[in-house]
Fold:
Amino acid sequence: MALLHNIWWLLVLIGVMIVIHELGHFWAARFFGIRVSTFSIGFGPRLISFRRGETEYRIAWIPFGGYVRMAGEQPNDEPDPDGFTSKPRWQRLIVVLAGPAMNIILAVALLTGLYMVRYPKPASAGGPAVIGYVKPGTPAAKSGLREGDVIIQLENRTNPTWEEVLMREVVSAGRPLPLVIQRGNEKISLAVMPELDPATGVGLVGWAEQTQIEVGGLVPGLDAERKGLRRGDLLVAINGEPIRTVYKIHDVMRNCGGKPVELTYIRDGRQHTVVLQPTMSEQGGGAPRWMLGVELSPRVTFTRLGPAEAFRESLRQNARGATLIYQFLQSILERRSSAKSLEGPIRIAQLSGEAAREGAAAFINLMATVSLNLAIFNLLPIPILDGGVILLLLI
Structure:
């Protein structure tokens, strides 16, 4: 049932992307008086179709793609004054660019609308890049980094945000990243070299951002619920150690051996401490592990942005996403990342189903991301893509 659910939402996601993309080509072609013989969503034999004017509109059996067939587009087509090749080069260029442009417009519009209704702001957003966790045995640990270190310079960028740190980390496998960190009153210069993670195909250092962790939910019947913890409680310490990331809690639970755990939290500005008895659980069919019955989540506040502010934030997020995509592609060519970092149809189907289950906001966010990715990849100078046609028109 989950598979069918994922496939359905994948078709919805891809369907919207294709329709918007092909409408860009179609509208631009019609604007310049180019005769369009076929507007197809999907490839292969037609499933359903109808004709209006000179154009046949169809849905085909293979849903992963689409096309707009214009008169005079193919080398063997008869000369036609209303054909694609009969138009000035600049008009043909606009027709080809219109598809990716529509996907970019859709991505910006989706996030703008979403942020006007629900804009998530993590508690750590806009603050300094503070290291909240260093995994033993990783490049971060080997370079001498510690929890609480503040990254005040990354390469040539001063006072980077954690978002900027992450963007450089994932595309820099095998290449040293020079850092300057603030540790107390001391400034330390060092370099850390991300390792290529075979599972994800990106560079990883083995650190995590310091953030506030709160109770996102409670597992019925386990000790956290019985001892009175509530959703929204801010977790500040476990067994006397400060909680800067969820990984600290995971480490303590992994090594607790079933012994009681002391958890300190803040509710309504007051600090409380409770002793919880871990329970062995095999939830999700994974390996047995000790649990307190607390679902952990970074503290996030939600607000609504005005139209202008939402538009600016949407542009910023899409520009960041486009930059990251190009950095990924460059790092793949330089073998600093793996093609595994590019999600295929199966993974996109899983993400579509998961996002749909999480709610409309998650699905809209995923749709914007996929739309931007589709635009960027279609602009690559590859013969079967729009970018290949653009390259030929520019030569």
Summary: The CA atoms of residues 112 and 310 lie 5 Å apart.
